[in-house]
Amino acid sequence: MATDEETPLLIETPPTPTLNHKKDVHILCWAFLLIFLAYGAAQNLESTINTEGDLGTISLGILYVSFTFFSVLASLVVKKLGSKTALILGTTGYLLFIAANLKPTWYTMVPASLYLGFAASIIWVAQGTYLTSTAHSHANDFNLHEGTVIGKFNGEFWGMFASHQLVGNLITLALLRDEKGGSTSGTTLLFIVFLCSMTLGTILMCFLSKRNGKEEQMQDSRVTFSSSVVSLLKAMLNLLLDIRILLIIPLIAYSGLQQAFVWAEYTKQIVKPSLGERGVGGAMAVYGVFDAICSLAAGRLTFGLSSITIIVSAGALIQIIVLLWLLLGYSVAGGVLGTVYPLLIGALWGIGDGVLNTQLSALLGILFKHDLVLSFLYLL
User: Can you tell me where the transmembrane regions are (predicted)?
Assistant: First the structure.
């Protein structure tokens, strides 16, 4: 007769996670770096290399109008396809845009810009959904604090993403040459390199694991498009009535405005008068380096709402100091200070941008984890 001591103890072991969540984050980071180092640098060049009839400027305008229009439907597409498929679909727009720059005409650039507006709206909603879903899964599988994991994953992503400014501008500086008469040589080789980089990034996307969370579930195929749109609009309205999203929207709006300041005013009014056109790439590289470092650091320090509040406040304070400096005491200087001041402003502004990118994504992931696709629509 067996005694209690002889009865084997059955110890339940937790199930082994089937997905390598950290690997997926690394793949996502590298894929976006390879894609956006090309697109970011190409975007910087559009208004200077495609000057005939203002083709470059008009193409960018068409792109952002298209982006605004299709953003309304982006969450619907991501829910229908799943975030992994939507990410891969989104990369095709960037590939087409870079390819169009190899033969820039109205017949190539305008359609490519229209399609990129659609693709960009898809890829960014899918990115936020996929990254946050991965963070939730990793936290659940290993019994970790969700806020901490979301912060770390967002910090890694935005840190890598911000470095595209450095890498893309260095490639541009290495391959482009200013010719006599104001022309530029090496653009064809540059865009071929960019196309190769984007192709590699797209291939990497294919190695992402498919996510099966609630936010990834496919809608019933019997549901009509019109009813899906109506449901989407109702869900957007319900979310818009949530006091939490109403409090976050001003931060999202400011994040967009401070990025617009970099592209529109910083390069034109601060960098160019002091460092010239050739200095724009170097200044943006400095901006990107500090953006990347701060994104990584802010992600590591994130563990919940209180830490997000402190970090965002610190980043906003830095940018407020820069704005007060520009409004009250800044003037174009000569000599060493003429070089240092624009770079210092870029570095400080990059710190603020890194904070906002990382913390806003983490905040949405923490507060709206039950409807990630729709919540990340507000970041567009």
Answer: 27-45, 57-78, 85-102, 114-136, 157-176, 188-208, 280-298, 305-326, 332-351
